[in-house]
Every structure is written in structure tokens, then in C-alpha cells.
Design goal:
This protein has 2 domains: 175 residues, Galactose-binding lectin (Jelly Rolls), CATH 2.60.120.430; 156 residues, Jelly Rolls. Helices cover 0% and strands 46% of the residues. It is built from no helices and 27 strands. The strands form 6 sheets. Strands 16, 17, 19, 20, 22, 25 and 27 form a 7-stranded antiparallel β-sheet that branches. Strand 3 and strand 4 form a beta hairpin. The protein is globular. The two termini are 37 Å apart.
């Protein structure tokens, strides 16, 4: 579920009864039975331009048709425990910690449609940064299984969004959904993720627009003492990287798909060999801040041995353009980390970051 500037529309309210904020998990784990929403749940719709009339309920055929509109940065249909709200203290939730798998039946109207599936716990932000797993659909009904431990950062003991369907491609598409349920068994064929959008003929690939990640990318933080609480988001404007003191190293990294420590089989990647430059905008809190910037393939080790280029930062916003061929150890056909920011100083420092993209041509 993503953030909107107005109240989210609720399409269905079935059997909701006021109860304490903490709610125990339903024994069956059912979310949709056919197209019928289970008691206590609500369904909402939103998009980047606040279009909210594109989900249709086909009772006769037993499914919901998600007619994702064209020309949106994102569109999302989401199912919440109780009312959807931006106030974390008001959010209701279920304890789903005994479940292992999310099972969903999906199909495309014509085949080839793409959608990202996610879940969210009550304390996660409405900024689109939660883990979402993209799948490519056929024109026949198929059951998709998602291992719950693949949704990094989710607390299953306080699950608030039980299922969300997010679309970030520019063209209109229609997706059908029915029979959503949680299973206590391990997923037999868990989804690993595909490209969230087909490759576009463009001179630029947006990675970070202001403070918001483009669809299909994830953001991670780490340090030598495993600190991961030093990022602040200025909504719509920039990311604030408060690199902590007394660390051998600290790193922020943007990945294709969610960050994971599993090499090769567990890491998604993109072929970005058609691009020639990495573009980003930064400034320091005081000036003279120093970083190393790198990229990495899905098979390179997490040992810091990848090529990283040093940058000294001023106190004013400045664009930085780096030729990809300077990352001599990295094959751009299988990029997993599309941008990383590594600091090896012992003193704390603060860096502002916005607008990351890959370019085919150097900017004028």
C-alpha cells in the first residue's frame, strides 16, 4: 500500500465489528474465498493520481478485476485488517506468525501482465519501500505461492496489510484475483520475482525519484556493528543518510528486488549494459564529507572487494555522473546493487541523496 494525499477509498466492508487493536489470527488464514472478503477485513484502492474506481467485483464469475489505469507512477489494491489508516497507532492487525505461505490465484486478461505482491505490518511506512515480489502472469488461472520470510522487514505478529497488488508500469493492464489465503505449510514453489515492468526504450532508467524508489528496487543499510537505523526520508524530496560514528564501515545500498544475503539463486538482477552512466545528486550537511560509490553483480561477494570510487561532497546540491566502465570488476549485464554508498570514517557524517538514474548519454 502506498501513500496518498487524501483518504483512501474503501470498496468493501464485510462483517466488521469493533474489537481491541490486537486481533488473533483467523484459524483458517482465509483472506478471499473466491471473491468474498473475510470478515473483519477491508479492501482499498489508490494510485499516484488518486484514481480509485478501477477495481470491479465480478460476483457471477467469482473474482475481482484490477483494471490498472495508464499514466500512473503507481497503482495499488490492498487488503487491510480493519480500516486503512496512515496513523500507525490506529491500525488493527492479526498475528500471522504461525503461517509460512501466502497463496493467491491470479491471471492476466491476455497474458504477460505484471504485478508486485506485498504484505505489511502495522509499523511499516506508507512509502512503497516494503518488500514486494513481482510476478508475470499467464492468461490462465494459476496459484502463486509467496514464502512469508521473503517479505523482509515484516513482523508477522502484527500483520496489517494482508495482501497488496502494486503496478508501476505506464501502460494499462487488467489482472484477475481470487482465493487468497495463508497456509501453515512451507511454499512448494515459492515465487522468486521477475521484472516488475518490461524493458522500455528510453535514454534513462529512474532508480530514485526524489526520495521514492522506483518499482522493483529495494533499499538496505548496514555497518560493521550491524546498525541499520540511520536513514531518514524527507517525503518527496531526499534521503538523509546519517552515517553513524565508531564504525569500521557503513553502507547504504539500492538493490534489484529486496536485499538478501543469498548469493546467485537468491538475488534478482537487471541487465543494464545498454546504459553508460550512473547519475545522482548529493550534498553534505557541512561540506567535505567523503564517500565511496559502487555497484555490484548478483554473484559478487559481500566483502567490500568490488570497485568503489571515492567522492568528496560539497555543502550544496551537486550532480555526480560516473561512467559505468570505471567499475572495472562489475559486469553490467547482471546488476544486483545498482548504487551503493560506503563510508569508512570513524566520525559521524550526514549526506543528502536524491534522484538516482542510469543514462545512455552523458547529461548536457
Amino acid at each position: 500500500m502506498l501513500k496518498a494525499t487524501t483518504v483512501l477509498l474503501t470498496l468493501l466492508v464485510i462483517g466488521y465489528v469493533s474489537s481491541p487493536v490486537s486481533i488473533q489470527a483467523q484459524p483458517s488464514g482465509n483472506v478471499f474465498v473466491g471473491e468474498r472478503l473475510s470478515s473483519g477485513l477491508k479492501l482499498g484502492v489508490d494510485s499516484s493520481k488518486q484514481e480509485r474506481t478501477w477495481v470491479n467485483h465480478d460476483k457471477e464469475k467469482g473474482f475481482f478485476a484490477l483494471e490498472f489505469p495508464a499514466g500512473q507512477e503507481w497503482s495499488a489494491m490492498f487488503i487491510t485488517v480493519g480500516s486503512a489508516t496512515g496513523r500507525k497507532d490506529d491500525r488493527r492487525y492479526y498475528d500471522y506468525s504461525e503461517f509460512k505461505t501466502l497463496s493467491i490465484e491470479l491471471k492476466g486478461a491476455s497474458g504477460g501482465e505484471r504485478v508486485e505482491v506485498g504484505i505489511k505490518s502495522k509499523d511499516q511506512e506508507d512509502d512503497g519501500t516494503e518488500t514486494k515480489i513481482p510476478v508475470t502472469l499467464t492468461n490462465d488461472w494459476k496459484t502463486y505461492q509467496f514464502a512469508l520470510d521473503s517479505f523482509k522487514g515484516v513482523d508477522l505478529k502484527s500483520l496489517y496489510v494482508l495482501a497488496e497488488f502494486v503496478y508501476t508500469c505506464p501502460a494499462k493492464q487488467v489482472v484477475h484475483v481470487r482465493n487468497i489465503k495463508y497456509l501453515k505449510e512451507e511454499a512448494t514453489t515459492p515465487e522468486k520475482g521477475t521484472e516488475p515492468c518490461p524493458p522500455a526504450e528510453t535514454d534513462a532508467l529512474e532508480i530514485l525519484v526524489g526520495s521514492r524508489l522506483a518499482g522493483g528496487f529495494g533499499l538496505g543499510l548496514d555497518s560493521s556493528d550491524r546498525k541499520s537505523d540511520w536513514l531518514t526520508r524527507k517525503e518527496g524530496e531526499f534521503l538523509l543518510l546519517n552515517f553513524p560514528a565508531n564504525q569500521e564501515w557503513s553502507a547504504a545500498f539500492i538493490t534489484v528486488g529486496p536485499p538478501t544475503q543469498k548469493l546467485r539463486t537468491g538475488r534478482q538482477f537487471k541487465d543494464l549494459s545498454m546504459f553508460k552512466f550512473l547519475y545522482l545528486e548529493m550534498k553534505g550537511a557541512v561540506g567535505e564529507e567523503q564517500l565511496e560509490i559502487g555497484i555490484k553483480t548478483n554473484t559478487q561477494e559481500d566483502d567490500g572487494s568490488e570497485t568503489k570510487l571515492p567522492v568528496k561532497i560539497t555543502s550544496e546540491w551537486k550532480p555526480y555522473v560516473i561512467a559505468l566502465d570505471k567499475f572495472v570488476q562489475t559486469n553490467p549485464t547482471k546488476l544486483y546493487v545498482v548504487a551503493e554508498f560506503v563510508y569508512e570514517g570513524s566520525k559521524a557524517q550526514t549526506v543528502f541523496l536524491r534522484n538516482i538514474k542510469y543514462l545512455k548519454k552523458a547529461p548536457q
